[in-house]
Design goal:
Distance between the termini of chain B: 9 Å
Largest sheet of chain A: 5 strands, antiparallel
Distance between the termini of chain A: 26 Å
Strand content of chain A: 25-35%
Number of helices of chain A: 2
Radius of gyration of chain A: 13 Å
Order of helices and strands of chain B: HEHHEHEHEHEHEHEHHEHEHEEEEHHH
Oligomer: heterodimer
CATH architecture of one domain in chain B: 3-Layer(aba) Sandwich
CATH superfamily of one domain in chain B: HypD, alpha/beta domain 2
Helix content of chain B: 25-40%
Structural class of chain A: alpha+beta
Order of helices and strands of chain A: EEEEEHH
Shape of chain A: globular
CATH topology of one domain in chain B: Rossmann fold
Radius of gyration of chain B: 21 Å
Low-confidence stretches of chain A: none
Mean pLDDT of chain A: 90
Number of strands of chain B: 13
Strand order of the largest sheet of chain A: 3-2-1-4-5
Strand order of the largest sheet of chain B: 2-1-7-8-9
Helix content of chain A: 25-40%
Number of strands of chain A: 5
Chain lengths: ~100, ~375
Amino acid sequence: MCLGIPGRIVAVTDEARQMAMAEVSGVRREVNVACVASGPLETLVGRWALIHVGFAMALIDEDEAAATLEALRELGEAQEALEAMAAGDAALGERA
Amino acid sequence: MRYMDEFRDPKAAKAVLAKIAEVVVQIGATAEKPLHIMEICGGHTHAIFRYGLDKLTHPGIEFIHGPGCPVCVLPRARVDDCIAIAERPEVIFTTFGDAMRVPGTEKSLIQAKAEGADIRMVYSPLDALELARRNPDREVVFFGLGFETTAPSTALSIQQAAREGLGNFSVFCNHITVPPPLRALLSDPDMLLDGFVGPGHVSMVIGIHPYDFIAHDFGKPIVVAGFEPLDLLQSVLMVVEQIRDGRTEVENQYARVVPEHGNPVSLAAIDDVYEMRPSFEWRGLGEIDESGLRIRAAYRGYDAEAKFGIGYGAASRVVEEPGGCACGQVMTGRLKPTACPHFGKGCTPEMPLGALMVSSEGACAAYYQYGGARAAAE
């Protein structure tokens, strides 16, 4: 929850809600980019960010992203984050 | 030195370890009279165990595992309140997976779910917002949990709900802040801490100045650190160098992610949505003044405490820890996890008795998980 995971912003999906598509270890997930936006959201496309519970919280460079991802894999936290994303998707599909 | 093979750059790690040892010897610290350095963040605790950093560093350094694991400090009464909300028939209760196994007085969220409550694990408060949009006839409650790292995401979600007028979304707010328990620990005359490794991602949000009191008022060094093992070793080196030189400063080892003044958008969202509670209970530490956030009156419609008439009053009743559970003493560094009578017997990660066994960021779970690896390495 606190470690976050690096992802690359690949497209803007909803300018008004400040949402963008990010690619995290091959998984695509819509994230909020309000905390890293300064100017048009388009300028974020291609950038790497640290993503915490669906929010891009800091822009980082590609080397930092790779090193962080490696450290998270070692801790088992990368897998945990990806599983949490899948659980979140599943929760939306559940019927009460 | 089994652990050394796993470093990305073992040569650099060895060099930093040698420097740490040199400085520790200069200070005159020994295994019998060690320096006590607290890593505040649960993520750091996990990394220290994973890489055996406490075994690799000079025995004149002893790591004390701090209160920085949000699910570990969540009071039992608040878990009970969660379950009471979740068991209401109109409610879809959403939570991060970490919180599912935290024991309440009678049960955990996972047990309540098994008994039929509609409890769903989500990755993000944005998932909870989407559930509220898709289920207009249900009340969707998000369990807001965590330090300043996750507080902005909950705040931004509440702002979004307000913009959309999403009346069936609310947050049960249990967000807490890192600096107040540090002040409480430092004010305890029994606590003998020599320095701190500061949290990386909390500081990414709040910057480094909220720790100024540690250096200025209490005369202790603190170094904000990244999460790679080399980051942690470099930060420990910076702490012991300060001790050797008689300096007490707030230093930033993780400047590549942590801006001096934090993240302005996150801080503005926190300020807009929350206000400080007069006090908040921390499991193992008790009530701490101005250490927890509640939702401001302007967003009352999104506050589950108000919506379901729970407030904070219910949580102020004292709920005793289970008999013999030593989480409180472990969290304040008075006891090692393995010295607890329940460790590995009545209390395991599968069936936790105390909160420190629940999360991989808790000291007990880290001891348990890496115990085998440690025995092999020694």
